[in-house]
C-alpha cells in the first residue's frame, strides 16, 4: 500500500519526519493503542519532535495547504472552552490534546511527507503494526484469552473476542476496516509489481483474519456500508453496475456472517444478543445521557471532557456501567464542545471530505476506509484512542494531499526561517515541559489508585497493608506535585489519607484534617464530581464533624443519585452514629439494589444486620 504522490526524492528532513511518525505509530499501536497515560509521555514527545522537524525544515516550514487551516479554529475554540466552560479541566486537556495531536499529524503529513519513499515508509509501518496486532489477536484466540500488552489482563466482558494490541475488540475491528480497502486495491491493481501484489494479498488475508477474530458487528456493518455507498456513487459507471456493486458489497459480508454464525460460537452468541436487544442495550442509555447534556448546554457544551461526570445526572436506576465516553464520537463532541465546537470540527472535516470526494485509485480506496471509520464512530469512541487517531490523520493527509491540489501559501527569507524555528521550539517546549509531565502525573495517579481498587475488590484488610499504602501515599504526593490541576489526584490523595487512618488510628484526627484539605482542593478545581464531596465528608467524619460530613454526602447524592458507591458512603457515614443505624441500613440496602455485587456494601450490610 503506497499512496500516490508527485513529489521529488525525500530530503533528510522528510526522512526524519517519516521515521519519527512511523516510530510513534508503532509505539502507540503496540502499547494498547496509547490509551494509558504512561505510554502517552513518549507519544507526545515524539509528536512534538515531528512538529519541530517540520518547522525547522526550510523547505516545508512555509507550506500550508488550506485543508490544514480549516481545522485550526476548532483548536483555538477548544482552548477557550477548556478555560471558560469546562469544570473538569484535567480531563478536558487530555481530550483536547488528543484532537490537537491528530490535527498536528494531519498538518505535518499533508505539508511535509510528500515523496513516494517517505510515504512508503509510513505505510509499511502502519501495515506492519496491523499485522503484528493480528498476530497478537491469534495468540489471544488460540493460546491465552486473558493476555494483553503491558502485563495487563483482558476483562471478562470481551471473552471469546480478540483485541490484538488494543485491548478493545472494536478498536481492532475498525483498524482492520480502515486498512482493508487500500490493501485490497493494491492486490487487484494491475499497475503494481507482481511481488507487491503477492505481498499485499498475504497482508490482506491477515487483516481479514483479524477482522473476523475481533467479532465486531459494527465494524463489519460499517465496512459493508462504506463499500456499498462508494459503489452507488462511483462516477463513470452505469446505474446497473453501481447497484450491482452495492448489492455485492452487502451480500458478501452477509454470507460471511452467516457462515461464521454456524461455525463460530461467539459469533452465534453476539448475533442472538443483537436480535434480543434489538441492536443495542447499553449504548442507547449512554446516548440519551449525552443528548441530555447537549440539551442542557446546547451552544458551548458542558465543557471539554465533561461527559463522564455530567452523565451522572442522566444515569438510570440499575445502570452500573462507567461509560467514560459517549460511545459515539459525534455525540461526545456535541455534548462536550456544544454546537459551536461540533460545527467547527466536523464542518471542517466535511469540507475536506467534499473536496476529496472524487478520489480515484489508491486514494479512493483510502477514502472508502475512512468512510467506514466515520460510520463506525456513530457507535464508538475511536478518536479517543491515540494510535487510531494518528493513523486516521496520516491516511487522511495522504489522500487529501494527492486529491485536493491547491495553491499553497509560502513564506520566504529570514523571517519565515525565524518563524519556523520559533514554532519548533514552542512545540518541543510544549511537549516536554507541559504535556508530558501531566501524562506522567496521571499515570502515577492511575497506577496508585488501581492498587487501592484491587485491594477493595479482593476484600483485603487495609490495616495490614502498611508498606503498600506508604508507597501509594507517596505516589499521590508526586502526582499532585507534577500536576497541581489534576483534581482526581487530589481526591485520590484524600482517599489514601482516610485509609491510612485505619493503619495508624492514633493519627486519625490529623489525617482527617489533611484529607479535608486535599478534597477541598479537588472541589475547588471541579465541584461537579460526587466522589470529591465524599472524600471531604470522610475527612470531616475523621475529625468528629459528623453533621458537616453528612452535608458533603448529601451533596454527593444530589450529583450522583443512582450510583451504588455514593449510597454506600452515605450508609457508612450514617453507621458512625449508633442512633442512625436504621438510615444506614436503608442506604446500604439501596446501594445493593443498585449493584448487588458491591462487596463493600455487602460487608457493611452484614455488619449492620441485627
Helix content: over 70%
**Into which percentage range does the β-strand content fall?**
under 5%
Mean pLDDT: 90
DSSP summary, beta strand count: 0
Taking the sheet with the most strands, its summary is:
none
Distance between the termini: 71 Å
Q: Given the helix and strand composition, which structural class is it?
A: mainly alpha
Q: Encode the helix/strand succession as letters.
A: HHHHHHHHHHHHHHHHHHHHHHHH
The multimeric state of the shown protein is: single chain
Number of helical regions:
24
- Low-confidence sequence ranges: none
Overall outline:
globular
CA radius of gyration: 26 Å
What does it look like?
This protein has 610 residues and is an all-alpha fold. 50% of the residues are buried. Helix 1 runs parallel beside helix 5 and helix 22 packs parallel to helix 24. The mean pLDDT is 90. The chain contains 24 helices and no strands. It is globular, with a radius of gyration of 26 Å. The longest helix has 46 residues. 73% of the residues lie in helices and 0% in strands. The termini are far apart.
Amino acid at each position: 500500500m503506497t499512496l500516490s504522490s508527485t513529489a521529488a526524492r525525500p530530503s533528510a528532513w522528510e526522512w526524519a519526519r517519516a521515521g519519527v511518525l512511523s516510530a510513534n505509530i508503532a509505539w502507540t499501536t503496540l502499547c494498547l493503542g496509547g490509551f494509558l497515560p504512561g505510554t502517552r509521555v513518549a507519544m507526545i514527545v515524539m509528536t512534538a519532535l515531528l512538529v519541530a522537524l517540520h518547522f525547522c525544515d526550510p523547505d516545508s516550514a512555509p507550506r500550508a495547504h488550506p485543508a490544514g487551516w480549516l481545522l485550526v479554529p476548532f483548536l483555538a475554540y477548544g482552548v477557550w472552552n477548556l478555560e471558560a466552560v469546562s469544570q473538569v479541566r484535567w480531563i478536558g486537556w487530555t481530550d483536547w490534546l488528543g484532537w490537537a495531536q491528530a490535527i498536528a499529524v494531519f498538518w505535518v503529513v499533508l505539508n511535509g511527507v510528500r515523496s513516494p519513499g517517505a510515504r512508503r515508509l509510513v505505510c509499511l509501518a502502519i501495515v506492519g503494526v496491523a499485522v503484528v496486532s493480528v498476530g497478537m489477536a491469534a495468540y489471544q484466540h488460540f493460546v491465552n484469552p486473558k493476555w494483553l500488552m503491558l502485563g495487563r489482563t483482558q476483562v471478562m466482558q470481551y471473552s471469546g473476542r480478540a483485541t490484538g494490541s488494543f485491548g478493545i475488540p472494536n478498536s481492532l475491528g475498525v483498524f482492520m476496516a480502515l486498512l482493508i480497502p487500500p490493501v485490497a486495491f493494491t492486490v487487484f491493481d494491475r499497475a503494481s509489481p507482481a511481488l507487491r501484489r503477492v505481498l499485499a494479498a498475504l497482508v490482506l488475508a491477515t487483516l481479514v483474519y483479524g477482522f473476523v477474530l475481533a467479532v465486531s458487528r459494527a465494524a463489519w456493518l460499517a465496512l459493508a456500508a462504506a463499500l456499498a455507498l462508494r459503489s452507488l456513487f462511483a462516477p463513470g459507471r452505469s446505474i446497473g453496475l453501481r447497484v450491482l456493486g452495492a448489492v455485492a458489497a452487502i451480500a458478501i459480508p452477509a454470507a460471511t456472517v452467516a457462515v461464521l454464525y454456524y461455525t463460530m460460537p461467539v459469533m452465534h452468541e453476539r448475533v442472538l444478543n443483537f436480535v434480543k436487544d434489538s441492536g443495542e442495550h447499553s449504548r442507547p442509555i449512554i446516548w440519551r445521557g449525552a443528548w441530555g447534556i447537549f440539551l442542557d448546554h446546547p451552544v458551548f457544551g458542558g465543557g471539554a471532557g465533561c461527559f463522564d461526570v455530567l452523565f451522572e445526572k442522566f444515569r438510570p436506576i440499575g445502570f452500573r456501567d462507567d461509560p467514560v465516553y459517549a460511545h459515539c464520537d459525534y455525540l461526545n463532541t456535541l455534548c462536550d464542545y456544544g454546537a459551536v465546537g461540533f460545527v467547527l470540527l466536523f464542518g471542517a472535516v466535511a469540507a475536506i471530505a467534499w473536496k476529496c470526494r472524487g478520489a480515484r485509485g489508491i486514494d479512493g480506496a483510502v477514502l472508502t476506509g475512512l468512510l467506514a471509520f466515520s460510520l463506525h464512530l456513530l457507535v464508538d469512541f475511536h478518536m479517543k484512542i491515540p494510535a487510531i487517531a494518528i493513523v486516521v490523520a496520516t491516511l487522511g493527509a495522504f489522500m487529501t494531499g494527492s486529491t485536493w491540489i491547491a495553491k499553497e501559501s509560502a513564506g520566504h527569507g529570514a523571517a519565515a526561517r525565524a518563524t519556523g524555528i520559533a514554532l519548533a521550539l514552542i512545540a518541543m517546549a510544549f511537549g516536554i515541559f507541559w504535556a508530558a509531565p501531566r501524562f506522567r502525573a496521571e499515570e502515577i495517579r492511575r497506577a496508585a489508585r488501581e492498587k487501592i481498587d484491587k485491594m477493595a475488590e479482593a476484600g483485603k484488610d487495609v490495616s495490614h497493608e502498611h508498606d503498600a499504602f506508604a508507597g501509594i501515599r507517596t505516589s499521590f504526593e508526586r502526582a499532585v506535585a507534577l500536576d497541581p490541576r489534576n483534581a482526581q489526584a487530589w481526591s485520590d490523595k484524600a482517599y489514601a489519607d482516610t485509609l491510612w487512618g485505619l493503619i495508624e488510628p492514633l493519627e486519625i484526627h490529623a489525617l482527617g484534617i489533611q484529607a479535608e484539605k486535599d478534597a477541598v482542593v479537588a472541589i475547588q478545581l471541579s465541584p461537579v464530581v460526587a466522589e470529591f464531596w465524599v472524600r471531604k465528608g470522610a475527612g470531616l467524619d475523621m475529625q468528629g464533624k459528623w453533621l458537616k460530613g453528612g452535608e458533603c454526602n448529601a451533596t454527593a447524592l444530589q450529583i450522583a443519585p443512582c450510583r451504588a458507591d455514593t449510597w454506600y458512603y452515605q450508609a457508612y457515614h450514617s453507621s458512625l452514629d449508633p442512633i442512625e443505624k436504621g438510615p444506614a441500613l436503608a442506604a446500604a440496602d439501596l446501594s445493593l439494589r443498585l449493584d448487588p455485587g458491591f462487596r463493600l456494601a455487602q460487608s457493611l450490610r452484614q455488619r449492620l444486620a441485627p
